[in-house]
Write a structure and sequence with these properties.
The complex is a heteropentamer, with 1 copy of chain A (315 residues), 2 copies of chain B (255 residues) and 2 copies of chain C (246 residues). By secondary structure, chain B is mostly helical. In chain B, 85% of the residues lie in helices and 0% in strands. The two termini of chain B are 21 Å apart. Chain C has a 9-stranded mixed sheet, with helices on both faces. The model of chain C has no long low-confidence stretch (mean pLDDT 91).
């Protein structure tokens, strides 16, 4: 048991944050060790986690929902095996004191501070159109500075992860309001997932199962002991999480919003129907392209794009 | 005459073509043989193919970047010149300003992007300022060191002729700095396009930087590299112009 | 006549080398003064003091009339041609500094080129000239400036006898015509005798004036055999330089 | 003697201190008077205070960055020297390699980060390589231009003495390039720390770049700026060292 | 005795200037040859041809024995001191190039400094020396190389008579002792007569040899009055240079 532990590498999608909580808890609580694994969480890099996974630098990675669909459509056999959050954590945010924005249709003609994905365009215009607007707005690609730009009024609205940026705005007492995607015709999705390459996972089912189960155990512990989990995360990241209040509040939001464990007790599992819905949405909006950058002509069959096969036996 | 001149120029470009082609070929072969996934490193042939397919978008995005590059570089040249003159005339300024300029070169974009957005918005101006900020320092160092390289005999001679500080500067220090200036120019113009691309990361509607960011976030490394090809080509043209200007400006070196 | 230029008890140390011990002499308007002395004595340093490039350790320099920076046309010992200016623009440099346009300066200096044996080299770069040609260009640059006081530091050192005599003759005539005051550093005793009204002989470093001579030979002196008087003076100066007491 | 030397050095640093302090003061006052939100631009006093509180973490992260900076810069110096010599000895290499190097300067990190991770992993090596890549080019241009500035008379003299190509290079071209080298050194060392910080974005466990990224994503602009202070201080020290080395290496200029 | 060095019908154009028209002469081993001619004639260019810095348009140069790059010790017209080397290291440069360590080169050249009037300036930089001192340093640098052939381009141009005579005497003695062959460019006819075994007089550009003279005066010639024969030769050469037919 002590000797030959299998080494597994895990790639992150962003700087360490509460979405990664279960991964760190599992390490600290020895769940990986129990499962015979030696898990190395790779440092966050400019390179997307899916690229690292696709090229074997890491066996597992945090996949964003849209990123995954894009890549899989292009022929990279990524496969999510665990949903970190059970519902969409993203939302549209804007300055709460703005009298001219009451509903998504009011966003027409406004300036959007974006991050540079094709998905955002479809997302925002769907939301505006879903509210009866024209879906026309100006995009300024900002990346990391979107929230400062919003705070200083240089852009009118942007997107955020409500359990991170949203929580921070609340902590700072910023009068911020938001629109939820699902309210305006965008399907709900598992925003953040853990996955690997399907062929690799199928070739290494035991390792995969061991890893996914350990992670699940970590996330379950975090959902049940958010304060303690927050401490673990802060400690494990060597002072990089320099805003402990944010971590705690974010954990509270993840628990309160039933993101880590859904109201019905679901943890990690993905509903194929929801995946298909999201896949169809992306296909219908022309966001799925093949390996040569050409629009997919035929609607893919999304079943089998994700799996729940490596989760612990559901009770 | 015309034909032979053309042939001569082509001959000068030959080694460059050979080496660049060799690298592209090696890359193509490496990707092929090592079976590198195109999600990581697409083959150059694919980059060219996809870049060509996206040429309209690429061109539309190259425009703003080129505009920022050229205006920013012009501003950089002008201010490097002004500051170098000020430093030359008021030596204490050198000690006072150099640390500030050095610090200005160490500011990472993530740290200042919010401020730039706050102060200047998303127009051309902030890009121009950022390009100027990045390319300014090599020019300044080169000019200041160039002035210092002036032969004392020449300065004494000019003073004996009744030239004042300004006359000595214009007639001896400035021409003496020319070779240094061009070393600085070639260094600095190399950074100008990249600087404009980076500047766009602070917030922009269009530009090669935005194109790259989009391509990357949409998992299109082939388009990322296509944009890099365009930016490299722009840089090479600017660099070649600088080198040509250098040859033209120092005829006495060639005689 | 009150002196135009007066040096009083100048002393100078450069680095840790004492260069000038005690230099005093006067220069009267229109007078041609030659300084002669061993290599490394401090002759060029005297010029640097006059030009204000160095400050004396002791003593003082007084100049009547023109302010210091408009008084001298200076020819340095090394030619100090600017590599990036064509010969014609090097020769016209002083005129440009005085405010003339480049075009006017070129027009003003071009007629001198044949006289200086530089015809056809107007548009050459300094690096394309022979040593003697560079020296002539530097001399021309100095003379066109038309300043009241001429400081010449070994202006003919790189010239052959014939070219040199030509230049000297021309200089003698030109100075007589313009009544310019001149100071000439030379190591050629005969040159000093041919050109100067007064000769100061300097000792080795640290320099002081060993002897001064008035040269009263009739002018023009060049282009014809020197009188016996001149030969006697030459011998006398040689003796002074060699340390043989008179 | 010792005391006066210290006082002299302090006097030399005075203008720098004055100007840097003036900027900090202006910043403090601006933040105060304009009521800029500390989430956008914290006051320097706050930056210092919070930076001090986080000094242990800051220091722990400054270490790897400094290591990458110094090793990368050493590699850069060495390879700039090697390539400059190669170009000097085989002139066609100049035309062949310069375009490649220019292109190498135009590669945005986002484009090459994946390759770097794939080829070199997450250790120190890729950072060293990236720092070298960024700082190499100014040194190369400076050296190559420096060699070209050599006085022909000196080279002819050496050849007459029986010196071969290498002897002429070592005894005339190399020393002639010294002032250019130092201009390039001062330019390039200024970029070294920033380059190391950027290199960390390609993947690192620790480092000022990682610290900045995390502080940014954790909404701590004060700590972002504290790290920028540290990186600026490092750069200033390196720059001052380069300037000091320059003075020491060219005693004939001071005499 | 077969010539050590032989120049045959050399012609040279630099830029668009025809510099050498037709230069032919031989140099025998141990012989001291002087080249005299007007400024800008092409004297220095002849040296550049010998050194292989320029290729002749026509004609050829043959050298017996040593390969070209080990044959000459060359003193250029402009001193070409390296600003970044101390005087002692400038003087020792040739020895270092020949493979001596810097330390050994310093030890080898240090004893020469008093003789060249440079004692105490060993550790100075070239910029801290007077024009004549620089020239002497360059001369010393050339002589210490101990090459079979010496090329001196106006080595005494910046020196006063006394210093110059001292240097010349020393050179004469040294050459006699080492049996070195020497080529001297000078514009000083008397200097040529005092030092040379053979004098070639060059025409103005494009240069050809107007006349050649053997100088058979007894040695040592310096430090004592020249015989009447010498004065006659001087007059003859002056006439040739002035274009007066013999
Ligand atoms: N680098 C060069 N490029 C073009 N022409 C040159 C160059 N160097 C010299 N010349 C030309 O060659 C001719 C002869 O020059 P050279 O230096 O040989 O003369 P010289 O006899 O040594 O004269 P001096 O006694 O003045 O030194 C001159 O007309 C000069 O203009
Ligand atoms: N820049 C300098 N720094 C220090 N010492 C110097 C400098 N220039 C000249 N000297 C010293 O001053 C002394 C006199 O030099 P100066 O040039 O005045 O002599 P000179 O009489 O003109 O000699 P020459 O006839 O050889 O030109 C020399 O000993 C020289 O070493
Ligand atoms: C903790 C966390 N915060 C922000 C982002 C980046 N981000 C900002 S908005 C948005 C999309 C919302 O639909 C994403 C992904 C992240 N990846 N993880
Ligand atoms: Mg002198
Ligand atoms: Mg010559």
């Amino acid at each position: 048991q002590t000797s030959a532990r299998t080494t597994v590498k895990m790639a992150l999608d962003w700087t360490p944050n509460t979405n990664h909580i279960g991964l760190y808890v599992a390490e600290a609580k020895g769940y990986y060790k129990e499962a015979g694994l030696d898990v190395q969480i790779l440092p966050y890099t400019d390179t997307s986690a899916s690229a690292l996974v696709a090229n074997g630098v890491a066996q597992f990675g945090i996949l964003s929902s849209v990123g995954f669909f894009t890549q899989r459509a292009a022929g990279v056999p990524l496969q999510p095996a665990y949903a970190v959050v059970q519902h969409e954590t993203g939302r549209v945010v804007f300055d709460g004191t703005r009298a001219d924005i009451a509903r998504p249709a009011d966003l027409d003609g406004k300036t959007y501070g974006g991050f540079g994905t094709a998905w955002e365009d479809a997302l925002v215009s769907t939301i505006i159109k879903g509210d009866g607007g024209k879906g026309e707005f100006k995009t300024v690609t900002l990346g990391t500075s979107a929230y400062e730009a919003l705070a200083s009024g240089r852009v009118d609205f942007t997107l955020e992860i409500l359990t991170w940026e949203g929580v921070n705005a609340e902590l700072l007492g910023r009068p911020q309001r938001s629109f939820t995607y699902a309210d305006y015709g965008v399907p709900d999705q598992y925003t953040t997932m853990i996955g690997g390459m399907q062929p690799w996972m199928e070739a290494h089912p035991d390792t995969t199962r061991a890893f996914i189960e350990a992670a699940e155990k970590g996330y379950r512990f975090a959902a049940e002991h958010p304060e303690e989990a927050a401490e673990i995360l802060i400690k494990a990241t060597n002072g990089m999480l320099s805003n402990p209040a944010l971590i705690k509040a974010s954990m509270a939001a993840l628990v309160k919003g039933q993101f880590l464990i859904d109201g019905d007790g679901t943890i990690g599992a993905m509903d194929p129907a929801r995946i298909t819905k999201m896949g169809n949405f992306l296909f219908d909006h022309g966001l799925l392209r093949d390996g040569d950058g050409k629009l997919l002509e035929t609607r893919p069959d999304f079943t089998g794009w994700t799996t729940n096969a490596y989760l612990s036996p559901q009770d | 005459m015309r034909l032979s001149a053309v042939r001569h120029q082509a001959g000068r470009a030959l080694p460059a073509l050979v080496s660049v082609c060799a690298i592209l070929l090696a890359w193509e072969v490496y990707v092929d043989l090592a079976g590198v996934s195109p999600t990581l490193l697409p083959a150059p042939s694919r980059v060219v193919e996809q870049g060509w397919a996206a040429r309209a978008v690429l061109l539309a995005n190259a425009g703003p970047t080129l505009a920022a590059t050229l205006s920013g570089f012009a501003l950089s040249l002008a201010s490097a010149f002004v500051f170098s003159v000020a430093i030359d005339f008021v030596p204490v300024l050198r000690r006072a300003l150099f640390p500030v300029f050095v610090i200005s070169q160490t500011l990472p974009l993530v740290a200042i992007a919010p401020l730039i957005v706050l102060w200047f918005g998303f127009g051309l101006l902030p890009k121009i300022l950022l390009v100027a900020l990045v390319t300014f320092f090599p020019m300044l160092v080169a000019l200041v060191d160039g002035y210092e390289s002036t032969d004392d005999d020449l300065q004494r001679l000019l003073r004996s002729m009744g030239a004042g500080r300004a006359g000595v500067f214009r007639r001896a220090r400035l021409p003496s700095a020319l070779p240094y200036f061009f070393a600085g120019l070639r260094i600095s113009i190399t950074y100008a396009v990249v600087a404009a691309i980076f500047a766009e990361y602070a917030g922009a509607q269009r530009g090669l930087g935005i194109f790259i960011l989009n391509a990357k976030n949409n998992f299109r490394p082939d388009l990322v590299l296509a944009a890099v090809f365009v930016s490299s080509a722009l840089t090479l043209v600017l660099f070649a112009l600088a080198a040509g200007l250098q040859r033209l400006s120092m005829p006495w070196r060639r005689a | 006549m009150s002196p135009l230029l007066s040096l009083r008890n100048l002393a100078l140390t450069r680095g840790r080398t004492p260069v000038l011990a005690d230099i005093s002499f006067d220069v009267r308007p229109g007078e041609f003064t030659a300084l002669i002395g061993p290599s490394g004595a401090g002759k060029s340093s005297i010029f640097e003091l006059l030009l204000g490039n160095l400050a004396p350790e002791a003593g003082q320099i007084t100049l009547q009339g023109a302010p210091q920076d408009a008084a001298f046309a200076y020819m340095p010992q090394r030619d100090a041609l600017m590599p990036w200016r064509r010969i014609i623009d090097n020769v016209g440099l002083g005129l440009e500094v005085q405010g003339m346009s480049r075009r006017a300066a070129r027009a003003a200096v071009a007629p001198l080129f044949p006289r200086f044996g530089l015809e056809g080299f107007e548009r050459h770069w300094p690096a394309q000239l022979s040593g003697g040609m560079r020296q002539r260009a530097a001399l021309a640059r100095t003379l066109v400036q038309d300043r009241p006081l001429l400081l010449l530091d070994e202006p003919f050192g790189a010239l052959d006898a014939l070219t040199r005599t030509g230049m000297q003759q021309w200089l003698e005539a030109r100075l007589a015509e313009t009544r310019t005051t001149a100071l000439l550093i030379t190591h050629d005793i005969r040159e000093a005798i041919c050109l100067a009204d007064r000769i100061h002989v300097l000792s080795p470093r640290p320099a002081q004036i060993l002897a001064s001579f008035d040269v009263t030979l009739p002018r023009p002196r060049l282009g014809r055999p020197l009188p016996a008087e001149a030969h006697a003076l030459e011998a006398r100066i040689t003796d002074v330089l060699a340390g043989i007491p008179g």
